[in-house]
Amino acid sequence: MLFSVLLSSKALWVQRHRALFIFFVAMAANTFGENLRLTTFGESHGPALGGIIDGFPAGLKVDLEAIYRQLARRKPGQSKITTQRKEADQVEFLSGIFEGQTLGTPIGFVVWNKDAKSKDYSHIKDQYRPSHADKVYQEKYGLRDYRGGGRSSARETLCRVVAGALAAQLLPQVSIWSYVSGVGPLTLDESLTLDPALTDSNLVRCPHRETAQKFEDEILKARKEGDTLGGVITTRISGLSSGLGQPVFDKLHADLGKAMLSINAVKGFEIGSGFAGTQMRGSAHNDLIDPSGRTQSNHSGGVQGGISNGEEIYFKVAFKPVATLMRDQPSINEKGEAVTVQGKGRHDPCVVPRAIPIVESMAALVLADHWLRAQTDKL
Hints:
The chain is an alpha+beta fold and 379 residues long. It has one domain (34-374): Chorismate synthase, AroC fold (4-Layer Sandwich). 29% of the residues lie in helices and 19% in strands. It contains nine helices and 16 strands. The protein has helices at residues 2-16, 18-29, 64-74, 134-141, 157-167, 209-224, 252-261, 282-285, 352-374; strands spanning 31-32, 37-42, 48-54, 91-93, 97-98, 101-102, 107-112, 175-183, 186-187, 231-238, 266-271, 303-304, 307-308, 313-319, 329-332, 338-341. A hairpin with a 2-residue loop joins β8 (175-183) and β9. α7 (252-261) packs antiparallel against α9 (352-374). The radius of gyration is 22 Å and the shape is globular. It starts with a helix and ends in a 5-residue tail after the last helix.
């Protein structure tokens, strides 16, 4: 009886406060994090994109150059294997930072779009591109911004990079290193000696010169043929103490998985031994603990029971091939009629080189959020 009364009361409240309800639902859909929360706004070809970071502690001396460096690694037009859209991606902070330090108040920021060419997308105004969000956005909202994909565009990720580069500064002792470990059918042999310093020495952001050249050649080959490639990014996190992560639903690896799977084009996430671990016996897979408290192996990927154990956290993120091809593809229009979608515009033939700072930033947001939550775990 009480349950039915509660349900009817909730329905009445929603009916009377529908506008407010819609506002909070929309906000939740565009907000990431618990204690440290990022809400983003903007579309690919709108005037600007930006965000609000709430829950950020006061007193941090902000390293703006670190934020600029991460944005430069993500921005378009940076090499011959990326989209040729030219955007400076200069962030403008509107609030929350005073005399170089965080105030503890909401940090607002904006990045203005300068090189949007909306006419490049006029041909898909009433057409659905294969494997894009065009059709599902239309069905969900009843209309869509077709210019560059609107809100579904990967351009939204620049907001995550701003916030993540800031969040990383809360944990200066932690190192987050991401690199490209796969492009199309090619895979990096991770038993080789990998040098983090080499990651940004090549266009592909692979820490092994010979493999990087093979990756680059494969991307250029696909681009020449009007096709695209997917890829894999490996991330290694060191210097993190044990005890981060919440039991049951907010496990550290669960939140890392959600963060990565929220990135455009991501189709897979595995941590530690991942799927390969299913082929091992428990006697080989268990991470035995030595007298020092360290584990002798790290099949767990630095997380046990959803809580960090002080070992290196390592995971892989799989990106599908870019959906926009520089060739014609069959599809349908809004009326359900068969059409041919032409390959136009400026697009990456493979997104993984530019996705490196996005992955690192989302990881930083998760770690900083859980670090803040851990401050109240015990007296």
